[in-house]
Amino acid sequence: MASTSLLLQVVFFVALAAEAMTAALAAGRRKMDWFGVCLLACVTALGGGSTRDLLLGHYPLAWVENPYLLLLVCAAALFTITFARVMHRLRWPFLLLDGLGLVVFTIIGCDVAIAMGQSPLIVIVAGMLTGIVGGILRDVLCNDVPLVFSGELYATVSIVTGAVYYFGLQLGLAHELVIVAAIATGFPLRVAAILFKWEMPKFVYDKELR
Amino acid sequence: MASTSLLLQVVFFVALAAEAMTAALAAGRRKMDWFGVCLLACVTALGGGSTRDLLLGHYPLAWVENPYLLLLVCAAALFTITFARVMHRLRWPFLLLDGLGLVVFTIIGCDVAIAMGQSPLIVIVAGMLTGIVGGILRDVLCNDVPLVFSGELYATVSIVTGAVYYFGLQLGLAHELVIVAAIATGFPLRVAAILFKWEMPKFVYDKELR
Amino acid sequence: MASTSLLLQVVFFVALAAEAMTAALAAGRRKMDWFGVCLLACVTALGGGSTRDLLLGHYPLAWVENPYLLLLVCAAALFTITFARVMHRLRWPFLLLDGLGLVVFTIIGCDVAIAMGQSPLIVIVAGMLTGIVGGILRDVLCNDVPLVFSGELYATVSIVTGAVYYFGLQLGLAHELVIVAAIATGFPLRVAAILFKWEMPKFVYDKELR
To answer: What is the ipTM of this complex?
Structure first.
């Protein structure tokens, strides 16, 4: 994370907390106990980056090197339990923070792959994994078919963000400028996707092979 | 993959595409969007080898080193969407390609473990993981109990194939000959298992512990 | 495992077998075949330690280095099939062995992280992952929401055990003494949790965000 700016760091922490809070609400819908809430929050907030690191062989994982990330995530999850009564009025703040998190996670994931000298396609895949896998793991542990497979544009936002970021850097633009450009592309795209219900075309297939 | 013959390479690509196509049909039954179709196809086609590599610490993963594999799998998945209308007539071609893929994935997985100097049991386990884990991940993401736990002989075919391959090589036979022998054992065994509904005995237990 | 005492080794084997047996019964409730029973047993008994090793980058994994562990686990699973008729009378022996296994897995997991020079929090997390992840993977493969998220104290027992173990060692006490102290804390705690139905508070949330 040394190559990311301070701003990105701050937004990263905010996004981690937001992911933890949405995971805590999902845990509450499954009537999990406080431990389950914290574990689901950790898997959701840190699972994307961890999966990317496992697949790329990038050790140590962020939370192993900086264990305070676990405490931050658990604190956000427990905070959510305390204030759950008012949380349901916060749909839009959550959606905005989640969208910002998606974009920032993507950029950080791209940075890891770039620092390892990966090829362009893998850089973009690494960004996308960082952005979306946490939510997939959350849905699998809650026994749902992952939402990212069928909802409004989400993974696509991550791919577009990663592409802007990677090719911006390739063009030799200043790092801060490229970060801002990537956020300024991905974040409004996600917000627009929610507002206007932009979705990828569905593939509906109901025949059995015979 | 340097030690595998050209034939094995070609069959490997065909098998990857076949796995991607069956995954795409499974995604269609869940009404996933095009992105979900591609992601499920990648997990199914490449997840077995990736799991093997993670467990053995064998880096870089095949698709990280050769990202065009991701494009191949996504192309096969998108092709499936386009031609889904006629796919349901292709049950037997799919079953045959899937069976061939199982055998070839197994051989490639054994090769990786052999090149790492693993013990015989781990070589066979590595082959089996390569052959079956993609399908398990597909079923978990589709929120099903994995089919491989209860259907016609599948993992068993992989184990038999791996054993023939490993001990054939141990006997000092020519590599090409051992590949052919392993395929000639495993593939007909799988086809026969489908035709004659050969299954492992089931373990049915319906008591609660008390 | 060099730093663990012989006693710990023996209890570890017993605990592996007990985990395998409970997994086999879970597989039987899903009508899995013999192969599925063995695979689910391996994932349950060895999945916690394997996940810990993947996340910490600790290679080779225990069962890759000592493949006889796979045979031990499969033997215990197949034994369970044979004697399933009488197993349902063994609820308490199973619960006791499972509780002992939780504690011993935790200690072994802590040892691995300590030997890698990890920080205190990561040592305790490593112990907890070793203790609980096998059961989580079992429940995911059986298509259940993991039991550990809502049942009697389980992960908490693991965390307490790990804390006693880690800080006991930090105090400079003899290794054998600390092992005994950790077991003597964690095991009765788990038994009491089952007897008296001690649970973490639940977080119940049934509103949608709006």
So the answer is: 0.89
